[in-house]
Amino acid sequence: MRNESDQERADRNFIELLQGARVAVTGVQVLFAFLLTVPFSSGFARLDSGDRWLYYTALVSAAVASICYIAPTAQHRVLFRQGRKETLVRRSNLYGILGALALAASMTTATMFVIDYLFDATLALVTAGLLAALALWTWFGQLALNRSDQSPEEESSDGSPVSSSEERRP
């Protein structure tokens, strides 16, 4: 365990959450900006109802991901010097998870939208299913298995696993 107060731990956790969100926010913003331009292209008018719903899902889920990833920073401003950092850390973690789910939905449906336009619905559906499965596995599933395999005492202070033969340091 680290030799830090509860407040110091909350500060460190919040900074770590924000650093992680910075990586995702850039990608979400680029995807969202691209999606905002699509209806203004000449071919958009020719889309059928199914493709329009795919586009709608991709656009709205990118907006939700953006909101979730930006929320911790906005809430930090509102709660500044209110002594609510631990609440903010827990809430920010939840927003990060929701943002990742929304980003996975947006990436999957945006890819499905484009592949359906370029090729056919079957290839689009298969590709989207594979992408969704990959995102869910790498972002959540694999980690859930790791978490269930270890008790909290078996992790180092930075969250990495500690083997039973390793000495635990303060």
TrEMBL record:
Residues 147-170 are annotated as: Disordered. The keyword Transmembrane helix applies. Keywords: Membrane, Transmembrane, Transmembrane helix. InterPro entries: DUF6328. The chain crosses the membrane at residues 21-41, 53-72, 93-115, 121-140. The keyword Lipid metabolism does not apply. This is DUF6328 family protein. It comes from Nonomuraea insulae. The lineage of its organism: Bacteria, Bacillati, Actinomycetota, Actinomycetes, Streptosporangiales.
